[in-house]
Amino acid sequence: MKKTLLLTILTLSIALLSQFAFAQKGEVRRFDNASIENTTNIVKLFPNPTIDYLNIKIENSELKHATFTVHNIIGNVVEVKVEEVEENRYRVKVDNLSPGYYFLAIRDEKGHFKETYKFLKRQ
Question: Is the entire prediction scored with pTM above 0.85?
């Protein structure tokens, strides 16, 4: 019993000490000057919830020939019209969809980018 209690206390002590060891002042500031702004393909859907059109804006994009697929909540593909408004800006016509949640899947032609986003269609 004493060995189990001692082992538990030792394990908890090591766990607590390891937390503080990695959160030292120098460690927290290690990435201050690092360039972590190389995030590509920042996707914004608006307005969400939507009524007539869902606008898609892809910032910092490297996508070539992106394809868009809309799925209903149970995963069935729903036919929608997608038009390119300008470079990296698209508009999806959703006025004929029933109210509810849908998923917009965005993929590029080479398969490097595959993301799915949820949106709500209102009446």
Answer: no
